[in-house]
Amino acid sequence: MKRALLLLGATAALAACANRSHSLPPAAEPGSLSLTIKIPAATSASAIHPAYTSPATKAVVIRTGLTTVSANVTPGSPNCTVSGSSTLCTFNNVGAPSPSAVISVTAYDQPLNGSGAPQGAVLESGAVTVTITPGQVNNVNLTMGGAAARVAITSLNSQPLNGAPSDLNFRVNIMDADGFTILPPGVYSSPFGAGAPEPVTFVATEFPFSDSLRFSINGVSQVFADQAQLNGPSDTYSLQYTGRGVISATLSVETLNHSSPLATATISPQAAFLPVTGAPPADASAVVQEAADRATIWFTEPSRAKIAFVRSGTLHEISIPSGNTPTLLVPAGVPGRQEFVYATAQGTIGFVIDDGTINEFTTPTHSAIGGIHFNPGIFTAYFTETVGKIGKLGLGGSLQEITLPAGEHPTAMDPIIGDFVDPATNSIGFIDADDHVTERALPTANSQPNGVAVGPQGSEWVTEGGAKRIARLNPDGLFVEFPTQDVLTSISVVTGDSGSPFVTATDASGNIELFNLDGSETTYNPGSNGPATSVGEAYNYDVLYVCATCPTGIQDFLY
Q1: At 234, which CATH number?
Q2: Those residues with Cβ within 8 angstroms of residue 19's Cβ, 6 or more apart along the chain or in another chain
Q3: How far apart are CA 528 and CA 510, in angstroms?
Q4: In the predicted model, what is the mean pLDDT of residues 300-306?
């Protein structure tokens, strides 16, 4: 922090400065208070000037007891002379503290106005209690606190490796209102605290909150996990990252009374991609689903005509009797066992159990099936048929169909509540307990909805592939749309380790997209472990996704 070195004393103490002056200030009276301020030259706005006041200082206000002295401190001002590249300003007989008084100095970046009042931004300020012994020299140092007005965050490792604990070390460059770096020693103060020193603080905000970041200063963890006091750039600041759970975080440098942060930096951990042990090659993987035990992963193997699951690192495969190509898989939610409903590209649908039992049924229309919802209360699987029907598969393999109005062609269906999307009518559809179907149009015309999922707080989310948007249907029935970075190709809802669900999707570029309830989007590029083609929830609250080209088709994405 820049420090203003203020020398206070009697005549003898000022002799050295006076000998360098072209004109002498009024003589100091023995035992009175005199003050000298040295203002360095401003070589550039980014220059660092140690141990002196800001080079931008043009006026000061000195208060001692009931006495106030306001003065300009630029070359040519009264009491000021040029010494080398600096300006020296000496003020004798500043008040008469006896035996002690508080002296305070505030520096401004503009000269006094026509009425002699200070104006402009505060650059630094300081106060000290002084004791004056009459008849002798009294030397007092006053340390100024720089007024933090601008902040630059540098050397922040903003992309730590997710899945591995690490320290995110960074530097903070604090500047005054004119862009000059404030150097230690001293205490940072803020010009936003109504004249009183105000703490300048770090705050880290995680989305969603998972307590994955903790502050440490000089190796000492702070009481508040996400907040630390800014003391000076000589301190070593570090965010201790646990390696898990952070989707994104924002580091802000702020003050309590300032309306907006002085500076922000975004922290977005890189994805750690861990292959699911025993998973088959990429061309044999299509869909991933988590089982109720949170320790088993189910997925389809289209090219092998199999349903597979991984449990305790061991791959289990169940062949489909018809040899058809499985494309969809949703949990049936049967208590006491792991059972799933699957569909194939050839228009068949069936039940599969982890003991190897599998039963498959052919739909009357042999239509392509775009989505499945299982209702455990009536043990019935609902599924969309693109020929304009909603199919029902019940106990014993009973098959029924609900015929939709002409021109409707439903595709994706939410596996939790059974709502579906219809690109042909640009709508989302609902099925009631009596199998009546209603549809509501999406706000954007021809948005080509291609996915639907029940999200946090009772909301529903619809991906609009033709509009480069994602829509949220609130519980009150209102639609809200958000633009997306790319066209979204799949959607799922994941429950994070904090217990809060959030929306995850893949896009046309093979990225993984994560959405908060307010529609804010975080993009992850799988790099060599991609592209991602579909996503699902995994054990340990991770996200599983399908990699279309990598050696192992199922990837564990530690968000």
Answers
A1: 2.60.40.2410
A2: none
A3: 11
A4: 87
- Residue 543: half-sphere exposure toward Cβ, Cα within 13 Å: 36
- The pLDDT score that the predictor gives to residue 30 is 53
Question: How would you write 177-242 as a 3-class SS string?
Answer: CCCCECCCCCCCECCCCCCCCCCEEEEEEEECCCCCEEEEECCEECCCCCEEECCCCCCCEEEEEC
492: β partners: 504
- Sort strands 213-217 and 237-241 into parallel, antiparallel or unpaired: antiparallel
Distance between CA atoms of 142 and 125, rounded to whole angstroms?
10
Instruction: Report the alpha-carbon distance of residue 481 to residue 319 in Å, rounded.
Output: 42
**Residue 46: pLDDT band by 50, 70, 90 thresholds?**
very low
185 found inside a domain: yes
pLDDT tens readout for residues 440-473: 999 999 999 999 998 888 889 999 988 899 999 9
* Cα gap 358→141, rounded to integer Å: 86
Distance, CA of 150 to CA of 238 (rounded, Å): 20
Residue 2, domain member (yes or no): no
pLDDT tens track for 502-511: 788 999 998 8
Q: Is the peptide bond before 99 cis (omega within 30 degrees of 0)?
A: yes
Q: What is the domain extent for residue 384?
A: 272-558
